[in-house]
Amino acid sequence: MKLSEKIIELRKANGMTQEELASICNVSRQSISKWEADIALPETEKLLILGETFQVSMDILLKDELTLNEVKDVHICGNNAIQKRKQELYEGVLVKESIVDDSIIDCLNIHKIELWNTGGNPKYWTVLFFTSDRRDFPEQISKVMRSDLDTNRNWFVDFKAGNEKYIVFKDRILKYHIGNQTEKEYVCNECRKLGISNGQMNWPE
Question: Is pTM beyond 0.85 here?
Answer without folding.
Answer: no
